[in-house]
Amino acid sequence: MSRPAKVTINLDALSHNLAVIKARATGSKVWSVVKADAYGHGLSCVWPALSHTDGFALIELDKAIMLREQGWVGPILLLEGFFKPEDVYLLERYSLTTTVHSDWQFDAIEKAQLDRPINIYLKLNSGMNRLGYRPEHYPQALARAKNINNIGSVIQMSHFANADTGLNMDAQKTVINQTMVNSLPRCLANSAATLFNPETHQDWIRPGIILYGVSPSGVWQDIADFDLQPVMTFNSEILAVQNVKQGEQIGYGSRFTATRDMRVGVVACGYADGYPRHAPDGTPIMVNGHKTQLVGRISMDMLTIDVTDYPDVVYGSQVELWGDQLPVDEVATACGTIGYELLCAIAPRVAVEVMINLPNSTFSDLNESC
Asked: How far is it, in rounded angstroms, from Cα 304 to Cα 137?
């Protein structure tokens, strides 16, 4: 496709980030979190770059099965568990570990006619009040897990609501330490806790967004010293340059009025490509290595930027929406959202190019399907 909007996925950066994370948590095993199609990066393309992980964690049962069918033989964890009682048989068939957070899941496992037991992660609601057993009910749930023949190993699990800011962290850690038993392994740390709270690393950690070189807090400066590299770069090109006079308006709704005579670059990218329609004037964008800003409302297929001070910007000039030169966190902050959302919003019509230099034959085998 000749349309220039394109995403580039750097698998070397992904492998590098995993190595950085493992070096920070040397006493813990690593679940590489690849939910939401590897945070919008394309799971079938990128998982081999994470082949040195100890396991993959995700939400989607079909993607877990895909990992098995594409050759991953290590552990796979379903972070939200299974959704229907009949899914238990797929857990057995594909050797999947499931989170258990509700009594109905225990009922389904107990009633199933299985040939071998299923390993579980037992979720404690330590204060986030999303999934999991409350502290007063957790000991009973542990006892039940130990008495079900269809259950193999049990690992204790919880999730921090504010590991990026520290709010209520001490309270949650107190609940965890008072409720969980010392005789069973624990898995507590998400991305933010992995970076900022090493005391939470325990037996397993669950890094997600940091694998992709993006900040869990939404502030790029928070991870600037951790040597994490952006995996996704979103590029396009200048389609045309308009000369706009002072007082004239730009784009739908005439949101932006020129305060001076301007050169305005028209970029082949819009909300149908995954760029946020609500992006305000002033949102940063790179063009020919220059940092400039958005002017005017995002269209379905185009957006407009100020290139008045950059005479070298012409038709075909290279534009980076986010990536190597411009952290996605910076764009997300300007748009009042987080990098996670932008990464996951890339549209199917955007071309994807996978960069790879790692010596692994599996990559070349999979690259054709990316």
From this structure: 56
| Predicted local distance difference test score (pLDDT) of residue 33 | 98
CA distance 336 to 304: 19
Q: What is the 3-state secondary structure (H, E, C) of 327-347?
A: CHHHHHHHCCCCHHHHHHCCC
Q: Which of 41, 17, 37 is nearest to 191 (CA)?
A: 17
Torsion of CA 211, 326, 39, 192, to 10 degrees: 50
Rg, Å, the chain Cα set: 23
Residue 100: DSSP 8-state: E
Low-confidence stretches of the chain (pLDDT < 50) are 361-369
**How many whole angstroms separate alpha carbon 194 and alpha carbon 24?**
8
Burial (CB count within 10 angstroms: exposed 0-12, middle 13-18, buried 19+), residue 224:
exposed
| The pLDDT of residue 156 | 98
Q: Catalytic residue positions?
A: 35, 252
CA angle, corner 119, sides to 117 and 122, nearest 5?
A: 130
User: Smallest Cα–Cα separation from 98: which of 140, 148, 50, 135?
Assistant: 148
CA distance 335 to 281: 9
Please state the separation of Cα 7 from the chain's center in Å.
Answer: 15
Rounded to 5 degrees, φ, ψ at 112 are: -70, 145
Contacts of 81 by beta carbon, 8 Å cutoff, 6+ apart: 98, 99, 100, 101, 102, 105, 123
Determine contact, residues 253/278, Cβ cutoff 8 Å: no
DSSP 56: E
The Cα-based distances of 106 to 88, 148, 153, 165, 214 in angstroms read 10, 8, 14, 34, 36
